[in-house]
Each structure stands twice: as C-alpha cells, then as structure tokens.
Amino acid sequence: MGASHEQPAPDAEDERARVLALLRHHGWNATSFQVLQPGFRYWFAPGGDGCVAYVDTGGAWVAGGGPITAPERVREMVEAFQQAARSAGRRVSFFATEARFSQLVPFEEFPIGEQPVWDPANWDAVLRGSRSLREQLRRARTHAVRVREVPAEVMETPGHPLRAAVEVLMEHWLASRRMATMGFLVGLAPGAFARERRAFVAEVGDRVVGFLSVTPVFARDGWFLQDLLREPSAPNGTAETLVDAAMRAAAANGRRYVTLGLAPLAGPVSPWLRFARTAGRPLFDFEGLRAFKAKFRPDAWVPLFLSHPADEPAPWAVYDALRAFARGSLVKFGLVTLLRRPRFFVRTLSALLVPWTVLLALPVSTPWFPSPWVQGAWVLFDVGLIVGLLLLLRRWRDGLATLLGVLTSADACLTLVQALTYNAARARGPWDWCVIVASVLAPATASAMLLRSRDLRVPEP
Fold first, then answer.
1. Is 257 helix (H, G, I), strand (E, B) or coil?
2. What does residue 281 show for φ and ψ, rounded to 5 degrees?
3. How far apart are CA 154 and CA 191, in angstroms?
C-alpha cells in the first residue's frame, strides 16, 4: 500500500473534508473528531476507504487513536502505515487506543489512563443516587446560573457577541493553566466544524461563566464532552450544570454513549507513571481530574493505551507521545511551563545559591577575587539574594521578583567585568574557564527567568 505523503500535498480543507466523511462512518475512538484540528497529517489508504491521522514529531508518527476505517481493515492499514513510517525513518505509535485495537493488531499495549463512560439514558438514576451532585446543581440554581445550547451559526460567526464572550472565557481559562499550551488531541477550536458539534454556555445574567463543547463519536452514536471550561469566579456547580445539560440533551437525542475523555495516569498504570502522577502534581492535578470525572458516577471506566510495535520500546513511544503534545520541543515546553509556575525554579535557585555562597566565603576561593573585601562583598550580596528568594517563595510579589531580577542582572554584569579584567588572565585550564563561564551565565539566566516569569506566571494559592 502507498501513502498519500508521497503524492502532491492536497489542500488541507479538502483533506479534512475527506477525513470527516470517513469519521461519519468509522469514527469509533472517543477522540476521533479531534483529528480534524490543525496540526494533523493524514495517511490515506489507496482505495480511500480509511486513513490514519497523525503528527510528525521528527522522530515518530504518533497517531491520534486507531485508523479511521472499518474494523476488518484496521490491521492491514496499521501494517501499511507502519511500513510508510519506517520508510520515512520514523517510529510509529497509536495514542489513546482501547482494547479493541489490540484485539485487531498485534501491538504492545502501554496503559496511560482511563476514561469514564455513561449511557445518558441512566442519567436521572445517577442524580438520584448522588446527593453531592444534586447539591452542586442546587447551588448553581441559587446563583441564577442558567445553561442554554448555542446554535452552530453563532459559533461559526466571527465577531458574534456570544462567540466573542466564549473566546474571552477560553483566553482566561488558558491563561490560568499551570502548564504551557499543548497540542495534538487537546487543542481548543470549538468554532471548527461547528455544525457537527454541540455547544452549551452557562450564564449569570448576561455574563458567560462556563462553556462546554461536545464532539460526536459517530460510530458509537455518542458524544464526547470535550472542552469543559469555567471562569475562576463562576459560582459553584457551574461545571456540573453544564454536564447535566449535555447529558439530558444526549438522552433526548437518543445517544447511548457519552464520555468525558481520558483521565491521564489514572487506573492501573506502570509504577513509573504512578511516580510521574505524584511528582507532577505541582503542574497538573492528575488525581483531581480523575476525582472530578468520578463525581458524575460513570457506568464504567475504560482503560486507554499507547499502542506501539513490539520491537519499539515503550519508553520511546512515551517520549514520542510527549513530544506530540508538546508540539515538538519538550525543552521549550518545559521552559514555558517553568516560567508559568516559577516557584520550583526559585526553590531550586535558592538551594543552589546556599552552597555556592558558602563556597565563596571559604579561604580556598580567595584567589578568585582581587581582594578580601571584594570577596566579602560578593558573599554579602549573595546572602541578600538568598533572603530575597526565600521571601519570594513565602509570598510571590511581582515587585520583589523584579528587584531580584535586576539584582541578578547586576550580578551577571559585575561578574563579567571581574572575569574580563581579573579572572581571565589568571585562568590556568579548562576547569577555570568552566567556573568563569558558569559564574557569568548562572546569574544572567536567573535574571531572565525571574523577569519573564513575572509576566507569564499563573497565580498560585
């Protein structure tokens, strides 16, 4: 089988129209509709009866779910897709597959989490059995939260007041995230293919305080409650009221399958993913997300997998998937995330500065300074920085962050002057030069990150 990437690139809109036509017949994975988002490439079967949607990370083709085709064609398409990827020098993996995939394809399964599913016909029974859910809905009603469905024409019309309000809400929500904006299967584009979606807004008076975008899961006659957003100041129960409205609409429309999507790292995952779940809590509350979805009392939790060939190790597949979500560069993603949540950086900087300052104060460091009083001045300067960083850790203040950024800039400049006028002539080998370069770059880097994090920081409790 050949691959479409070897042919002249078709128009992106034409490609997505072809994918949408296939989705209407074979869109079985809960995340299948998301592959219409920008950033995906499409590998089409020569006969046009299926495709694989993927992102190219530079080292791998990472597919979003399984092939979009009839079940009996899945294995053949996976084999051809894998062959095309290897011809292009790429590894291959399939993200967010379910057990059906491994029953059809001899790939390894690596558990990455689980997703809750409901039959919306049972929603009234769920509410009857959950006092806490009923209480949240009551709180929302008490605060005059009302939910209504948004016509597709509104979401299709740039500049429409309601769409503009939703876009403002999206901006606020994205700005409040602890991590850098991700790509792959989690992009926000509720206006795209609006006639295929359903959308709901929660309002208090004329103010939009919540939004829910619903995408179809065609082959299951179901819905994926994809983007559930709320303003930080929204009344309690806003999110629950949006879910309640969507569940009732799904039942009224005869849907038999609803999901809230993947709860990453939930369920029976590997020990090192459990460690990542705990260690990553300052950046993403994995357990909190799972608990939020669990409060709606799903009918079942379905495990999801990262599927990969047996001859390609699971760590490579995980790395490739992370690069897909990071939109290519894990380093850039990590730096932006660090700047948005700078406490870890400040804590690390403080921990490193303490032994550095002690080292500066020792007699063994005296030859690095023009005189003992210069050495003493640097020690006092660094002690002051440590105190400032500890105060910043205790309570973040933009003014203090700015002051520390300016001081570390001065540190870098003065260190550079001393390095050029005194230390360079006395350097005796590579080790001395490494110390000199590190002495200049460390405060310069700290200054840049302190000043930049002041602008990008997400408020922390």
1. strand
2. -55, -35
3. 9
For the residues of 105-130, what is the DSSP string, one character each?
S--EEEEEEEEEEE-GGGHHHHHHT-
CB atoms within 10 A of CB 343: 15
CA distance 345 to 357: 18
Biggest CA-to-CA distance, the chain? 83
Q: Give the phi and the psi of residue 353 in degrees, each rounded to 5.
A: -70, -30
pLDDT of amino acid 179:
65
What would the two tokens of residue 232 be? Answer: 């930080």
**Residue keyed to tokens 């009603």:** 141
Strand-strand pairing, 198-204 and 207-217: antiparallel
Instruction: Name the amino acid, one letter, at 146.
Output: R
Taking alpha carbons only, the member of 306, 326, 322, 323 closest to residue 314 is: 306
Q: Report helix angle 372-394 to 398-418, nearest 10.
A: 160
Q: Which helix (H) or strand (E) holds 450?
A: helix 430-456
Could you tell me the residue ranges of all domains in the chain?
Answer: 1-115+262-287+300-332, 120-260, 342-456
Radius of gyration of the chain (CA): 27
Cα 65 to Cα 5, 14, 34, 195, 419, distances in angstroms: 19, 21, 10, 23, 55
Q: How far apart are CA 256 and CA 119, in angstroms?
A: 5
Q: How many CA atoms lie within 13 A of 303 on its CB side?
A: 15
Give the number of C-alpha atoms closer than 13 A to the C-alpha of residue 210, restricted to the C-beta side.
27
Tell me the backbone φ, ψ of residue 105, rounded to 5 degrees. -130, 135
**3 state SS for 8-52:** CCCCHHHHHHHHHHHHHHHCCCCCHHHHHCCCCEEEECCCCCCEE
**Cα(248)–Cα(352) distance, integer angstroms:** 55
Tokens matching residue 73: 């064609």
In whole angstroms, give the CA distance from residue 377 to residue 414: 12
Report, as ranges of residue numbers, the positions in the chain whose pLDDT lies below 50.
1-9, 456, 458-461
Total Cβ atoms within 10 A of residue 21: 12
**Model confidence pLDDT, tens digit, residues 216-262:** 999 999 999 999 999 988 999 999 999 999 999 999 999 999 999 99
Residue 305 one-letter amino acid: F
pTM above 0.85, yes or no: no
Domain 120-260 architecture: 3-Layer(aba) Sandwich (3.40)
Q: Which residue do the tokens 């053949």 mark?
A: 76
pLDDT at 48 (0 to 100): 86
CA end-to-end span of the chain, whole Å? Answer: 55
The pLDDT, as a whole number, for residue 2 is 40
